[in-house]
Amino acid sequence: MQALPARRSLLTALFAAQAPSTSLPPPEAAVHLLGRTSFGVDEATLARVRTIGVAAYVEEQLHPDSLDDSPLDAVLAHLDTLGLSNAELVQRYAAAEQGQRQVPLRELRAATVLRQRYSRRQLFEVMVEFWSNHFNVTHSDGRARYYKTGDDRDVIRPHALGRFADLLRASARSPAMLVYLDNASNVVDGPNENYARELLELHTLGVDGGYGESDVKEVARCFTGWGLRNHEYHFFANRHDYGAKFVLDHRLPANRGEEDGEAVLDLLAAHPSTARHIARKLLCRFVEDLPADATVEAVAAVFIRSGGDIRATVAAVLHSADFRNSADRKFRRPAEYLTACLRASGAVMDGEAGLRVVAAALTAQGQTPLNWPAPNGYPDQQGYWLNTAALLARWNFALTLFQRGAAAPLHVDIAALRGAAVTPAALVDRLASRLLHRPLAAAARDLLVAYAAAGADPALPLATAQLDATARELGALLLASPYHQYR
Fold first, then answer.
1. What residue numbers bound the domain in which 202 lies?
2. I need a surface site. Which of 153, 240, 358, 402 has the fewest CB within 10 A?
């Protein structure tokens, strides 16, 4: 195996020569689609897309209930807390020792990793992550460590491809959201504006959506009394402000109770600014960091015409010309990058020990699932994630993943990956095909072949003792390259 400085020099050369600004050779449509609608391309899913076609695969993924995911259910079966109510989780874990108090948090994060790695319903899981980020609740924040399990199960997942209005209403009543943004303490004698502000700025209209400070105050009044009893949503009539209210130039009459909040949610869900805000975020997730205004308007129009139908809106994004022409314009966030490494390599993740390795890697790369500390969710733009320290953490993960032997809790079957390839040139071609599913530029291929040959003739077979070690190095270098960092 070559020295670490040599590897870093090669990776630096690959990034300099093959940054997307200088254009990577484009992937086929199926690979591009999976790069955007899944947590990474794997052999089986790519074969499925090639068999039924891009359009049919999109339609299939937009209807996840039609896909059998029972193998994943078996993988998740040992995570007992996923099915517990808020009250059961608090009763069982809130007074436990420190290590035990973290069990619900650890198990939901484990489930998130496993679903993204193994689910056949990949687009659904992408949308679950999208909405979890949109309606962000910091998982480790107070009671949220117990309530977020129910928020994921009962709020985000049932509505991830449903109607936005239903998702918005469910989130407003979510115990996790009620405690995280303090609406549980929003009462007529002491209004709390935290939820109202984030509802307008983050969840619906957007920062430039046309609301003012008076709207924040009035919306907060509408949600007075929305609180918790026995760890579930409850409306406290005696804590509500019954005066008339004015929200976004709409008058809400006096002497109404819970209906005030419901009216605000309906108003916001149908607002044109909400349509544009959601359209822009979806395009940022699936197309590029700064989507074209015309495309935002086109997708927003679908959102409005469909009554906020998320499935129809996502379909409009995926069938757009901007989507088709946007290969390599998105830099993978850490969780996407890591999971894509596992899916591409077919890495074996053995039980709890394997999950601990993945959790440590996600922490090192800066994206522990469900743990962004602010209400705005993890950033979805390259500028936040692309820096020297972040790249080094990714390179180290790829190198470590491929260096582990079969006894390690997270490892790659390198013999299966390299197949019958025995020359440096054949190894590069085989591994690029299996891990990247796309052609390498001639300059990048030449760099990798020369590195693998280490001064020898690249057309001659490597010594048997060198084969696996060279294949491991090449595999790690390919997954650390721009071809895998971008999607």
1. 64-269
2. 153
